[in-house]
Each structure stands twice: as C-alpha cells, then as structure tokens.
Amino acid sequence: MKILKVLVVILILKSTVTHAQYASAISGGVDVGAAFGSNTLAPSIMYHEEIGPNRLPWLRLGLGFRTWGYYGGRANLYTKSVAGTQDFLEYRNTSLNGLSVLAGITLVFGKFDIGVDTDLAAITYGGKRRGFYEKTSANPGTGGAHYETWLATRPTIANALPLLLRRNSGQSEAFVRFRAWRTVGVKVGYTYGRVAYRTTRADGFHVYLDNNQRHVSDVYGLPYVALAFAIGN
Question: Which of 3, 118, 146, 207 has the smallest C-beta neighbourhood within 10 Å, fewest atoms?
Fold first, then answer.
C-alpha cells in the first residue's frame, strides 16, 4: 500500500518524534456494494487506505480509488440557471461508468467506522443518450433551432470535484462500517452523486441550448449497502 506516502511524509514533517511514535500503521480495505432506488442502480467497488496519528487513534485520513456505475430510468438533466431561467433535457434513461480518485475522513469507535468520502477527480464513459429539449418561446434564444427536438449527448469524460462543480460526474458518500469479523464487515450509508452530460457536435458544429449552454446535470441520493473486506492492519 503506497498511495498514502504523501500523507505519511506530512505527518513526519510536522512531528518532533519518530514516525513510529507518531503515525499509526496504514490500514485499508475493499468495499463491494451498490446504491439503489426504485428505478436506479449504482454499483461500486472502492479500494481505500487510511492513516492517522497515534495521539488520535480514533481519527483516520484516507485516499482511494472507486470504480462505479450509474444506471437510471427516466430523468431530467438541467442546465446552469442564468438570470433565474433554467432549461432541461428529458431522458428515457441515463447510464455511465467511472473510475475516481477519492479522499475521506473516518472516525473509529471500536468495531465501528463512521466516515465520509468524496471524489476528487474521475474519468467517466458511456454511450450516447438522446435528450428531448422541451421548450417553446416567442423570442428564441441560442437554442431556438433545437426546441422540441431530440439532441444527442454523452457523459462528460474528465471530471473534478463533482460534489461542488455541476458540470462533473462522480460520487460522495456518508457511511457506517461495522467490522463484524477480523477481515469481513458490513457497510451501510448514503450515496450522493451527480450525473453530467453534454451535447455532441452536429455537422461539425457545437449544439447549444439557450444561454449558450452545452452541459446538463442533476444530483441523486440513494441508500447504499456493501460488504467490507479489510486489508493490512
């Protein structure tokens, strides 16, 4: 386990004692589970490593990777609100897959871990989806030529901080992990995610909605359950 070397170095530099005296051993694990709703499924596999100071044995800081998918039914994805107006594309279904780098913080109480994590950056991919631009106006804007038509879109590819930035896809979660046995436990929580698409080119030109918008997105919140496998100390 090497992805936490930077955190280890920071702890060493801030300490006046040796690493062995100050920082606890790196621990890690793999969580395999899914978030789910009435017409939505978001499976994921997360690899995580944590480290913390011996002075605060209940506090752990972590980094990790998450591979995930999102498969949803009928949905509306929205543009950024401009001057109080907001457009949307209506989809029969949405789907995408991603690989994310994440960071988190965990509080340890006996066999229970209580924590949160969020994607820092992600690469997502998925097939094209057509969204219906349901709009009419006596004074058409930049998207006027595309009112009441189906527009081709695809998921954004490069994503960062989806918890904060609306044009980016990714996930965050709050969870409780119960270490029922030495190497196997159960994890339950709540996944908060964002799905982002953008219009694709037509005849070599960008396709815009009103207010020069190309990106549409929406957030979702789903309960989550997983098996948690411990690795290391």
Answer: 3
CA distance 75 to 84: 21
Q: What residues pair up with 67 in beta bridges, in sequence order?
A: 45, 99
Burial of 18 (0-12, 13-18, 19+ CB in 10 A): exposed
* Closest C-alpha to 203, from 124, 146, 144: 146
In this predicted structure, what is the pLDDT of residue 33? Answer: 97
Q: What is the pLDDT of residue 103?
A: 96
Per-residue pLDDT at 217 exceeds 50: yes
- Ramachandran assignment for 60, one of left (phi > 0), alpha (psi -120 to 50 degrees), beta (any other): beta
CA 105 to chain centre: 16
Query: Residue 55: pLDDT above 90?
Result: no
Which residue shows structure tokens 């094209």? 128
Please check the confidence at residue 158 and state whether its pLDDT lies above 60. yes
Q: Which pTM value belongs to this model?
A: 0.83
| Residue ranges per structural domain of the chain | 5-232
Contacting residues for 68 by C-beta, under 8 A, at least 6 apart: 42, 43, 44, 45, 97, 98, 99, 100, 171
Phi, psi (rounded to 5 degrees) for 55:
-65, -25
Fold of the domain built from segment(s) 5-232: Porin (2.40.160)
Would you state the structure tokens that stand for residue 65, as one six-digit string? 């990777």
